[in-house]
Amino acid sequence: MSECPSCGKTLSTMQGVRQHHTIVHDEPLPNRCCKGCGADFYDSKARRKFCDDCNPNAGEHNGNWEDEKSIAVCETCSSTFSYYPSNKEGTYCPDCVESAKGLLPDNPQKKEPRNTVECGHCGEKKQVLPSEEEDNKRGFFCNMNCYGQWLSENVVGSDHHQWKGGPINYGQSWWRIRRAARRRDDYECQACGRNKDDLGRNPDVHHLTPVREFDSVEQAHTMDNVVTLCRSCHRGVEEGEMALSDDSKK
């Protein structure tokens, strides 16, 4: 078990604590230890070996250090300007860059035109890139709530990725097992750490081994075959987009 350093909440994995701290306390926990000074710090990609103070490629050691700029004369307006040295000489001042079309590559920050699409559930309009529209298969949605509602209404029966011939009667014991699983897991998602209060509803209960793989539903409804998940994580596991860690499996 791992404990949140801010509120003391215990979760089954450290990854769960990190997700909990980012979501609930709005601040990521340190995930790296500086090889220079030993201080803990956070890096979004968890790759850096040094903190900002110890980075051997930062500050004056960096080729783009402020004091190492070069001076050039703009070929368009003849004004002098400073620029960071590279394998290309400075040619145009910042004010003339836009007028140097054909001589400079396109600005990578230039915004692409966007297309207007409608949310597949509520019909609200939003702007998307053409590339997003080409790659999208299920349509666009305002948020996860709209997406969830759309899935509930459309990805059912034979359209569901786990369809195997019809509905299953879970039987009376399912309600008892589901309540017991939620109590055991403190009404908390065992993947991301969000609880009933964070979600605003009771979390889902997921079968680790699908019910259809058992000879009877009663065999599937056991405490060691169920785990509490929020709706988002439940959907991710069901669709194969995420996997549960061994620690989250009770």
TrEMBL record:
It comes from the Archaea. GO terms for molecular function: endonuclease activity; hydrolase activity; nucleic acid binding; zinc ion binding. The keyword Transmembrane does not apply. Keywords: Endonuclease, Hydrolase, Nuclease. GO terms for cellular component: cytosol. SMART domains: HNHc. It holds the Pfam family HNH. Residues 2-30 form the C2H2-type domain. The keyword Transcription does not apply. PANTHER family: HNH NUCLEASE YAJD-RELATED (PTHR41286). This is HNH endonuclease.
